[in-house]
């Protein structure tokens, strides 16, 4: 049962409730009742008023619910009071998302990040979560004294574990940084997929890479980031990165905990903002994603790396599809209208990515010994060979290269960059 008490999200209460139901079903919860509760003035003790409390008490008893999910942020006091009143476990929106992330994390890194988020959230709720808080643990021997309350000891244990996890995640960040440095030396540009959860990122990832990443019509179907190398066209290979989906009111614990993963987005050469253009709340979802990107110091309007990918176009009438790309261009974005499910527009999207990546490439003429087939093969694999001619002893190649590749070639040939 999910009384939705969120507001100021730009969505209708019914849309917010539908999303909360989807989140609950994402971890196989059976939803017995779902309803919106109007909150004129949030109550410090219970969030909702006495009349709604009484009405919901009846519903909880009638449905024999084992859990109530409140689609809002509850204070520890509100959570405890609601549990006492309804005599059932109560979790809020943050707790629900944490449960989903805990179930979906598969890699060691993902599990560490989820545990950090859980502990940070739990630490602020010790007053509600522990049943032995009233106990006083006194000292003995030369360490004797007034003692500490159990809550202080529990908090200390959590703090110690948080410190351990942060150290391990620092190692993860260093490892990721080394991987990025290695990719820069290759170098393959990184193209990161971002978007609201269930916008179709994983379906698009599978379409472009022919991979088998889990892709379901489900919120947070995938959690751990996945990377694959693909051919983007114009003689350019890229690394495509599928990242965790965003959602409205994404808990700050999660944003902080998943910093190591989100750094992949910050370091990407191109960012594909995948939108479910057929969703009735697509504009609100866009604003939510842009808000998280701003938290990562990525201004979607000013950052030239962002391409807007309008997905699920197959669900729209033909005349609507024709106006979508033009609308995106009016906002100043490169825009691709696609269907990841059917493949419509995906070739055009890859061509757009290749054009964006190649925009900063240098055009230079290289003089090679006619027998230097190795360097010629390297030029074909790393750049776009525009022209090649020979005089019998040497080959003169006009080639377009990424600046990093151009620098590498000059070092390899012992020539000077002009």
Automatic annotation (TrEMBL):
It holds the Pfam family HflX_C. CDD domains: HflX. Residues 189-361 form the Hflx-type G domain. It is found in: Cytoplasm. Gene3D superfamilies: 6.10.250.2860, GTPase HflX, N-terminal domain, P-loop containing nucleotide triphosphate hydrolases. InterPro entries: G_HFLX_dom, GTP-bd, GTP-bd_M, GTPase_HflX, GTPase_HflX_N, GTPase_HflX_N_sf, HflX_C, P-loop_NTPase. It comes from the Bacteria. Keywords: Cytoplasm, GTP-binding, Magnesium, Metal-binding, Nucleotide-binding. Monomer. Associates with the 50S ribosomal subunit. Belongs to the TRAFAC class OBG-HflX-like GTPase superfamily. HflX GTPase family. HAMAP family: GTPase_HflX. GTPase that associates with the 50S ribosomal subunit and may have a role during protein synthesis or ribosome biogenesis. This is GTPase HflX. It comes from Inquilinus ginsengisoli.
């Amino acid at each position: 049962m999910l009384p939705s008490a969120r507001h100021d999200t730009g969505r209708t209460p019914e849309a917010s409730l539908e999303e909360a139901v989807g989140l609950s079903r994402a971890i196989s919860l059976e939803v017995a009742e779902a309803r919106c509760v109007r909150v004129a003035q949030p109550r410090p003790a219970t969030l909702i008023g006495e009349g709604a409390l009484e009405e919901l008490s009846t519903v909880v008893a009638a449905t024999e619910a084992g859990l109530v999910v409140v689609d809002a942020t509850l204070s520890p006091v509100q959570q405890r009071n609601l549990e006492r009143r309804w005599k059932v476990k109560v979790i809020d929106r943050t707790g629900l998302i944490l449960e989903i992330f805990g179930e979906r994390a598969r890699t060691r890194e993902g599990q560490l990040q989820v545990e950090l988020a859980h502990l940070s959230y739990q630490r602020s709720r010790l007053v509600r979560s522990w049943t032995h808080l009233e106990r006083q643990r006194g000292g003995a021997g030369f360490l004797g004294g007034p003692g500490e309350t159990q809550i202080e000891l529990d908090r200390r244990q959590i703090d110690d574990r948080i410190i351990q996890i942060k150290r391990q995640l620092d190692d993860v960040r260093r490892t990721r940084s080394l991987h990025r440095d290695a990719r820069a030396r290759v170098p393959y540009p990184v193209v990161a997929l971002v978007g609201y959860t269930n916008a179709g990122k994983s379906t698009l990832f599978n379409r472009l890479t022919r991979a088998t990443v889990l892709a379901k019509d489900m919120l947070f179907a995938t959690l751990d980031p996945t990377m694959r190398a693909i051919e983007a066209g114009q003689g350019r290979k890229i690394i495509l990165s599928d990242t965790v989906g965003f959602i409205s009111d994404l808990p700050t614990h999660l944003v902080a905990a998943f910093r190591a993963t989100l750094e992949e987005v910050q370091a990407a050469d191109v960012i594909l903002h995948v939108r479910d253009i057929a969703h009735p709340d697509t504009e609100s979802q866009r604003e939510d994603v842009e808000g998280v990107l701003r938290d990562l110091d990525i201004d979607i309007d000013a950052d030239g790396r962002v391409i807007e990918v309008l997905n699920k176009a197959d669900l729209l009438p033909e005349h609507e599809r024709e106006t979508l790309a033009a609308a995106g261009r009016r906002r100043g974005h490169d825009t691709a209208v696609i269907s990841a499910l059917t493949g419509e527009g995906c070739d055009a999207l890859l061509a757009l990515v290749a054009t964006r990546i190649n925009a900063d490439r240098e055009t230079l003429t290289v003089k090679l010994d006619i027998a230097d087939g190795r360097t010629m093969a390297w030029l074909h694999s790393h750049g776009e060979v525009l022209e090649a001619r020979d005089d019998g002893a040497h080959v003169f190649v006009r080639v377009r290269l990424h600046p990093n590749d151009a620098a590498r070639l000059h070092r390899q040939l012992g020539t000077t960059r002009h």
